[in-house]
Amino acid sequence: MPDIAVAHLVRKQNGILWFERFLRSYRERPAGVAHELVILFKGFRGAGDTVEHDHLIADLPHRREFIPDAGFDLHAYFGAAQRLDYDYFCFLNSYSRILDAGWLAKLHRWVVQKDVGLTGASGSWQSVAGGYATQHRPGHLHGKAPGQFSQVVAALRDRRPHMLKRRAWSLMLRLAGALKPGRNFPPFPNPHIRTNAFMGARATLLRLRLGPMRTKFSAYKFESGIDSMTNQMLRLGLRVLVVGRDGEGYPPERWPASNTFWQSRQENLLVGDNQTEAFLASDPIWAAKLSFSAWGELARCP
Predict the structure, then answer these.
(1) Domain-by-domain residue ranges, the chain?
(2) Are 220 and 128 in contact, with CB atoms under 8 Å apart?
(3) Residue 99 and residue 197: Cα distance in Å, rounded?
(4) Which pLDDT score is estimated for 129?
């Protein structure tokens, strides 16, 4: 059995389209290193519930894991790391699309180094606690970027009936202290590996404290909070690197130059997702705001 697992999450509620796109990219762009494909079927009742998916992967050697439709992607990832005996895991979320041949070999080349705890296809300096503009002189306020919490405020003001669920979620965030995010998130710059596509050694991943994760706010904290996956790795004395198509491992201070996430045309990105695609599809003004939220004055837009 290979010592690397590529664990891809497939959520029943997402339908078949995203899975088709992932598999097309997986076939077209070889990983470059031996591994086993592990499909994490989330929300499916069992083998009889995957008929629509089965014909898509009939020709691909793979392993299957069935996961209840509860919790968040991170529960599925770290649950798999606990149950399955591989030396290394590369986790890809439901929206992941592979963009370059040799992608896994490039991530693996760096993560096997003794002082590296985590590699990812993308990272950001963005902070829920406040964008670049809030940390610098008022002249930059025109560039303050959109984020989850500006969307929360908009939802609270919207009185349309179909917004009731979003308003209820906003209230939960407020009660959880999310509207005072300085308690839980470092200010900008807040380097963190994005959890859409990342890789680590099983032994190292299992040293991380996932903590209770009952709300989406908890998932945000694990990705970019004070006790984020990235910050926990750094406290262990391990490096975290974004790896580009060029095969280079970029430390956090060089992430703006990597052209992987919300920067330039993202031409160095190894694995894309819905957020990276939305950036490329945005109008220039919105793209500039997104880039500014991630990189401040180092932002460079298409």
Answers:
(1) 4-123+190-252+262-272
(2) yes
(3) 12
(4) 82
4 φ/ψ angles, rounded to the nearest 5 degrees: -120, 130
CA distance 288 to 138: 18
Contacts of 84 (CB under 8 A, 6+ apart): 5, 38, 65
Using the Cα atoms of residue 100, residue 208, residue 42 and residue 112 in order, give the sign of their dihedral: positive
Contact 11, 96 (CB under 8 A): no
Q: What pLDDT, on a 0 to 100 scale, did the predictor assign at position 105?
A: 98
Supply the pTM of this predicted model. 0.85
User: Residue 257 has which token pair?
Assistant: 């130059």
* pLDDT mean by block of 10 residues, the chain; 302 residues: 94 95 98 98 93 95 92 91 97 98 98 98 92 42 41 47 52 56 89 98 96 81 95 98 98 98 98 97 95 96 78
pLDDT at 178: 52
Domain 4-123+190-252+262-272 in CATH 2.30.30.140 = no
How far apart, in whole angstroms, are the C-alpha atoms of residue 10 and residue 248?
Answer: 29
Compute φ and ψ for 122, nearest 5 degrees: -160, 155
- CA–CA distance, 216 with 208 (Å, rounded to integer): 19
What is the enclosing helix (H) or strand (E) of 56?
helix 51-57
- Contact by Cβ (8 Å): 128, 185: yes
Which position has the token pair 């929360």?
152
